[in-house]
Amino acid sequence: MVGRVSGGAAPRSAISGVLPLIAKRIGSALVTLLLVSAVVFTISGLLPGDAAQETLGQSATPEQVAALRHEMGLDRPALTRYVDWLGGMAQGDPGRSLVANMPVREVISARLPNSLMLAGFTALVSVPLALAIGIASAINRGGRLDRTLNVLTLSAVAVPEFLVATLGVLVFSVKLLWLPSIALVSEDASLWDTLRSCALPVLSLSVVVIAQMARMTRAAVADQLDRPYVEMARLKGVPFRRVVLFHVMPNAVGPIVNAVALSLSYLLGGAIIVETIFNFPGLASLMVNAVTSRDMPLLQACAMIFCAIYLTLVLVADVVAILANPRLRAQ
Predict the structure, then answer these.
(1) Is the whole model's pTM more than 0.85, yes or no?
(2) CATH number belonging to domain 10-46+77-329
(3) Bigger pLDDT: 56 or 141?
(4) CA 20 to 30 Å from 229, out of 17, 60, 119, 275?
(5) CA 124 to chain centre
């Protein structure tokens, strides 16, 4: 009876020790998001020109620009506009687009599913390939396969997304005529047409993500292979394949999930470049258009969504690292 109580107390104690640390990470993420909101609002306000001038054009008189600025609320103090905007964001209302003259939420809702689809396709391609490359490289450390994969992944990490996209267009669109150079995504398109339209954007995003994820996966598996329990299992005559499958991989799950989450966060920066090059109707290209038209409410909402997604992925990586490594629970 005593054994049962003490056995159940250990997991409860472990959970009670982990929850405050996870809550601390979540609190830090929320504070970071608040600071990012101030930075985003300040930087967007420093951009030259505004939506009133862009809407009326260069031929507008100062009186016309001033009247439109007053109508759009751009002449109010910056702090007042920031507080109102932050309160609206907290309630799920990012305001009204100054250019489209419609709620920002409706503008974003038309583009966000496309970006999520692109990210989903990229993750579907990148994660299995990266895990296979990383695990194969770690198992064959020092061998010819490991050296070859290391050279390829290191070279891929150094190649920027816009160069991969340009080469993909030259090879698959101009030379071979296999894939379209512009991603035309619509609700009426068939699955095959959607896959063809997303092929080059997914390829451009996947190259760097696969390389980064594979290198991080290799490091995680190689670290487990250097642990004493692996050497002990080998000395007992356990086959290497069984050691990897039943001992190394379960212990490497936490670091691998951490690597996947961090690698997928890199998609956010690449998506801005790739969506612009292929004219993909996603959230990143919408943010670029908002910068061009000085549509501040739309720009700020898009930037906050990207920051929130990035912080969420980093938070997931931190939580997984905490759950997988008992030593971090004491920090």
Answers:
(1) no
(2) 1.10.3720.10
(3) 141
(4) 17
(5) 14
